[in-house]
Amino acid sequence: MSKPKTILIVEDEALLLESIAIKSRQYGFRTLCAKDAEQGMEMLKKETPDLIWLDVLLPGMNGIEMLEKIRNSTSPAIRDIPVVIVSVSTSARTRLKAVELGISGYIVKGEKGIDATISEVSKILVHR
Amino acid sequence: MTLYPFMPFKIFLKKATGKISSQKKYRFEDAIRDLSHILVRNPRLDTLIEGLLGYLGEILGTEQKAAFLQGEIPGKFVMHDASRFDGRDSILTDFSPLIRYFILPPPSEMTHSKEILDRDELARECARLRMPPEPLYHKEALVRELNRLGVVLAVPIFSKEKLLGLLLLGEKRSRKPFSRGDLRFLDVVSHEAASFIENALNFERILRLDEIQSEFITVVSHQLRTPLSISRWNFELLLGGTFGKLEPKVQEVIRYIYHALLTLTQGLNNFMTAIEIETNQIFARLQEVEFSPDIIEEVVAQFQEIIKQKNIRIEKEFLFSGRASIDLSKIQKVIEVFLDNAIRYSPDSSTICIKTERREEGEIAELMVSCEDQGVGVSPKNRALVFNRFFRGEEAKKISPSGYGLGLYVAKAYVEMHGGKAWVEEKDSKGSIFRFTVPLKTQSV
User: Fold this and answer.
1) What phi and psi, each to the nearest 5 degrees, are found at residue B436?
2) I want to staple A8 with a disulfide (CB 3.0 to 4.6 A). Which of A49, B235, B241, B343 is the partner?
3) Residue B33 above 60 pLDDT?
4) pLDDT tens, B42-96?
């Protein structure tokens, strides 16, 4: 059996973080959970996930800033991790900035059901 | 006549003022012509005032100058482009004798003054008349205020009877008093500039309103979407049994709340999208994709529960195969809106047919998607209106009283972002056919 793929979920809403993690595990993924970008960056020092699920509006460093740090990382393994932005923000400016930095998807939080959302994310992992 | 076609403003100003200062004296007609040039080419308030004051400063030989213009709060006049202006105030209110002078008529008069105030002239008048000061309006207070602000002239800018602001000018570098000719020139300037300043003030106000609207969209979207998504996803986990088996009655209540939440979420999303469409904040990001039946199956899957509940049969006729240049999530949203309407307005145990096909429109190859139902239909008079924002037909309101009338509006806008068309067609039997087309290759939209 192949090793399950790992998703790092960066989300500040505890209940949301828990529900995403539960559903992701139901889909067979291993999950790493970070409640803010700083914690997420710390986790990246120890482990390289297969995908990062990244919220934008986070306390302290925001998701776009974290994405920028990832893309400017000196480690190629971290620099190339696919990132999916999952945010309540539909702002074209945020979206463009994220696309410029390099993302694998931009999902508007809550627009689709949790199954449809995780399934969309899993497609990105499968195609990797 | 000298023309400065397409000349950068700063070069123009340098040339115009250079010519005048080298002549020591300005020619009235030339100055008015140059000034018109400045007024016409600067629709934004900051550059307009900078240009106007810069020019006046150069040709009249004054260092200190500032403009105080009506701000967002009535009665408050905000400083713009102050240069060597010693006054500490960045705002003048209607407590200032200067502002009061121009907005309140003096006790003996019916209307307020629109004349330029000259400090030296006022001071001379005060010395000559030696009259006791009047409580609200007296010349000594005006002289004190002009001294406090470190200026000699206050040029009022009026639009009809409304004071738009004041241009304040300090002493001339030569220390000479302003001549009658200067005052006459400034009087013409104040009349000429009024409509331009008013337009620029209105333009700034509109831009500010746009900003407020964008901020409002962002705040509403963030504040509402976060709790809605937390609730939606957790209700789904609850109903899916992730947190344990639910009692049938509890399950029924949660399902009911969940559907109410979905209606609210969908309404909010459509509402926010409609605002984004109106404010041009949304656009299609076209990518070439393989338009497989899965794309439609994914949308149909979202409605499985209601399809089962209403015992609706979904017929699929996927005649199109190939690649299409589309924004996939937006096209799926259009199909979702069509299917949602078809299910909502169809009787139980009826059939809905979804069809995809290739169509040639002139030289352009298109993908056409149709959704045909046996529902209530759209009356001929409403066919052109159903895609309008907030429109809801009488037939639709009878079946589903709640609803915002935004789904089809958003769907049509999304299709048009692709350079396509969306419409509803007449049907021989009961029901309606909603169709949309999008070009297969990227068009310049």
Assistant:
1) -145, 155
2) A49
3) yes
4) 888 989 999 999 999 988 999 888 999 998 888 889 988 777 666 567 889 888 8
Looking at residues B108-119, what average pLDDT do you find? Answer: 76
Min Cα–Cα distance to chain A from B141, Å: 52
CA dist A88 and A90 (Å) reads 6
User: Helix, strand, or coil here: B77?
Assistant: strand
Interface membership of B265 toward A (CB under 8 Å) = yes
Containing B91, the helix (H) or strand (E) segment is strand B91-93
Q: Answer whether B101's CB lies under 8 Å from B140's CB.
A: no
Edge-to-edge strands, sheet with A6-10: A30-34, A6-10, A51-54, A83-87, A105-108
pLDDT category of residue A91 using cuts at 50, 70 and 90: confident
Question: What is the number of CB-based contacts under 8 A between chain A and chain B?
Answer: 68
Contacts for B425-429: CB closer than 8 Å, 24+ residues apart: B426/B380, B426/B383, B427/B372, B427/B377, B429/B374
Residue A10: what pLDDT?
97
The token duo for B413 is 């806008």
Q: Which of A22, A23, A88 sits opposite B221 (nearest CB)?
A: A88
Cross-chain residue pair A16–B230, CB shorter than 8 Å = yes
Instruction: Give B197 or B83, the one with higher predicted confidence.
Output: B197
* B230 touches A at CB < 8 Å: yes
Calculate the CA B58 to chain-centre distance. 37
- The answer to whether A19 contacts chain B (CB < 8 Å) is yes
B215, B223, B226: which to substitute to probe chain A, counting the most A Cβ within 10 Å? B226
Looking at per-residue confidence, does A94 or A118 come out higher? A118
Query: What is the sign of the dihedral through the CA atoms of B136, B138, B143 and B144?
Result: negative
Distance (Å, whole) CA B441 – CA B373: 29
Rounded mean pLDDT of B189-208? 90
Mutation to test the B interface, candidates A109, A117, A122, A126, most B Cβ within 10 Å: A109
| DSSP symbol at B172 | B
Instruction: Enumerate the residues of chain B whose CB falls inside 8 A of the CB of residue A11.
Output: none
Mean pLDDT to the nearest integer, B195-209: 89
- Mean residue pLDDT of chain A comes to 91
A26, HSE (Cβ side, Cα atoms, 13 Å): 15
Helix (H) or strand (E) holding B408: helix B407-417
B225 vs A88: CB contact, 8 Å cut-off? yes
Backbone torsion region of residue A3, taken as left when φ is above 0, otherwise alpha when ψ lies between -120 and 50, otherwise beta: beta
B390 vs B368, more confident: B368
> Measured between CB atoms, does B244 come within 8 Å of chain A?
no
pLDDT at res. B5: 39
> How far, CA to CA in Å, does A40 sit from each of A9, A12, A23, A44, B306?
8, 11, 20, 6, 40
